Inverse folding.
């Protein structure tokens, strides 16, 4: 797990001067164990590459990056983990490839030399990398299927710059510090900027499951992964048995490390399933749970019951509002882009890293893949309602909660229904709150034959990709902690998405497919009400954090710089205190304002 940054200039005469060392300093939290750079001109082309390393596989200096092939033709900077690297290494060795290290990075290089870009679909893991082939004057940027690892880029004529984080591109000096109207609009709409947009004008995210090939001023992007559209007709027993094998295979790969592996444990179904299958494979990892004095948010009893059931050492992370307030500035400053959900992961990651853990397993993705959210049931209910164009039209004009519901009921398009289920602020509200925000344009979407699978695909491509995975990556890496995602293995997700919806919903048990496949979960995990990983921030905002929020809301100069209407911002705060605006919507505004101030960015 690492951080990467660099620039390729295909025309030496137009190569922009960059601050590579400054960009590496901006990424240092992602890789405190090692640092490397390359600055080389070759055949009229210049490559400036940087890498910071968190050593997980092959802790020796042989894993140092940038890494170049033995013949000097291919160089790579790589962030992530290739879980099937041993299998690929064995296959390559069988056809005569000799390796100098045990690192997965060298496997990517060797695979590229043998198979070209066809190596990318064969990589099973979380990854983002930039690869330079000198002989062809060719550059490849690649990102894993679900976007677990981020990769951002800026294209300026015959140069392309890339990085693991947006702030590294700012430090590199290849883009302005101007906020993006598209980024603001999508943040207000969904609580986080939606890819390919970012908060910075001119900076884009490479889509998950794609490879971008750059040859001078020409570039092309190829999609190598997409979820299946077809439905697989199998019975419950067969599905459960197959899923158990896929889970164990995923866990087996993700338990491989040259350092200790821990587990984020909430006591819910997802993280408990991860722990259960890890134990079944002979591993008893340390588990960690965030705990609060507020009983409605505290999951300690559930989690400790699960940990004791499996005989695993368990540690409690008690968080109080005073602790959060003291470190809130650092938490927000650690976000690479604003998010209404990120600080949760910041505090749990810090505690786990302080306990000496470098790698942690997470149940992230379980709700999106196994239909865990209440919205899945709502989507099934809405599917039975015919399209009501008049209601939809009226709802769009009316705005507000009632208007959004009418739009939702009346819309026939699954993506439109999903948008309304997940939206924070509608278009009319966005225009009031942020006059500088651009109008959001709907993107095309190909639905699955099964309605539940369609919604699952939308959740994976939406909330999971743009909020949960991004927050998990940047907030864990803020503390040099690698988080692995067993429930997002490509083979597992492909299988589950294609299964009939009646296997995924039950009136008695949440996520019945996962529960049955796991087989040994205690009732403390399966019978409890779903809580989700959240802090009691609503209560804290009205008490301990209220002075912080009030000062932030009344900073008119900062609001204007951030693109918000100061008067509407204050009105929103007053509505929140009066109980007329939900916490999630208020926090969407606060997180944007606080993030812009922390990073001194403006329109």
């Amino acid at each position: 797990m690492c951080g990467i940054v660099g620039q390729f200039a295909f025309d030496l005469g137009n190569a922009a001067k960059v601050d590579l060392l400054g960009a590496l300093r901006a990424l240092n939290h992602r890789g405190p164990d090692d640092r490397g750079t390359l600055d080389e001109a070759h055949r009229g082309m210049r490559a400036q590459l940087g890498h910071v390393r968190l050593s997980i596989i092959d802790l020796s200096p042989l894993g140092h990056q940038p890494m170049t092939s033995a013949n000097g033709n291919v160089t790579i900077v790589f962030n992530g983990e290739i879980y099937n690297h041993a299998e690929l290494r064995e296959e390559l060795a069988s056809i005569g490839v000799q390796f100098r290290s045990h690192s997965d990075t060298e496997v990517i290089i060797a695979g590229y030399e043998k198979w070209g870009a066809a190596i990318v679909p064969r990589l099973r893991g979380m990854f983002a990398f930039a690869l330079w082939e000198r002989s062809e004057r060719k550059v490849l940027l690649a990102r894993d299927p679900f976007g677990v690892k981020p990769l951002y880029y800026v294209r300026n004529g015959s140069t392309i710059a890339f990085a693991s984080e947006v702030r590294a591109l700012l430090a590199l000096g290849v883009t302005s510090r101007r906020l993006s109207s598209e980024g603001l609009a999508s943040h207000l709409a969904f609580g986080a900027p939606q890819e390919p947009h970012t908060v910075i004008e001119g900076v884009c995210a490479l889509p998950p499951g794609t490879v971008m090939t750059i040859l001078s001023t020409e570039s092309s992007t190829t999609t190598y992964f997409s979820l299946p559209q077809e439905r697989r007709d199998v019975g419950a027993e067969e599905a459960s048995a197959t899923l158990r094998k896929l889970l164990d295979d995923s866990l087996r790969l993700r338990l491989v490390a040259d350092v200790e592996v821990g587990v984020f444990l909430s006591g819910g179904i997802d993280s408990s399933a991860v722990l259960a299958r890890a134990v079944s494979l002979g591993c008893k990892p340390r588990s960690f749970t965030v705990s609060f004095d507020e009983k409605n948010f505290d999951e300690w009893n559930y989690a400790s019951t699960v940990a004791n059931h499996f005989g695993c050492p368990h540690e409690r992370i008690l968080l109080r509002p005073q602790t959060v307030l003291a470190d809130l500035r650092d938490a927000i400053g650690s976000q690479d882009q604003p998010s209404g959900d990120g600080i949760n992961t910041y505090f749990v990651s810090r505690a786990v890293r302080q306990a000496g853990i470098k790698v942690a397993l997470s149940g992230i993705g379980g709700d999106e893949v196994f239909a865990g959210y209440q919205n899945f049931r709502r989507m099934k209910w809405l599917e039975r309602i015919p399209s009501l164009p008049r209601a939809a039209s009226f709802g769009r004009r009316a705005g507000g909660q009632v208007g959004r519901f009418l739009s939702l009921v009346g819309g026939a398009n699954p993506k439109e229904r999903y948008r309304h289920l997940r939206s924070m602020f509608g278009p009319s509200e966005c225009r009031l709150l942020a006059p500088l925000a651009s109008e959001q344009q709907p993107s095309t979407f190909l639905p699955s034959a099964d309605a539940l699978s369609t919604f699952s695909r939308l959740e994976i491509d939406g909330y999971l990709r743009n909020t949960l995975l991004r927050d998990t990556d940047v907030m864990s890496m803020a503390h040099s902690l690698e988080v692995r995602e067993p429930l997002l293995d490509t083979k597992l997700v492909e299988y589950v998405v294609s299964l009939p919806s009646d296997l995924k919903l039950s009136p008695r048990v949440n996520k019945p497919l996962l529960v049955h496949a796991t087989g040994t979960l205690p009732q403390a995990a399966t019978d409890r009400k779903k809580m989700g990983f959240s802090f009691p921030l609503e209560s804290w905002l009205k008490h301990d954090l209220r002075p912080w929020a009030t000062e932030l809301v009344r900073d008119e100069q900062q609001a204007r710089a951030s693109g918000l209407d100061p008067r509407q911002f204050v009105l929103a705060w007053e509505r929140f205190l009066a109980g007329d605006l939900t916490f999630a919507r208020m926090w969407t505004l606060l997180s944007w304002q606080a993030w812009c101030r922390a990073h001194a960015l403006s329109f």
Observations:
- The chain has a mean pLDDT of 90.
- The chain has three domains: 2-223, 228-534, 536-603.
- DSSP finds 25 helices and 17 strands in the chain.
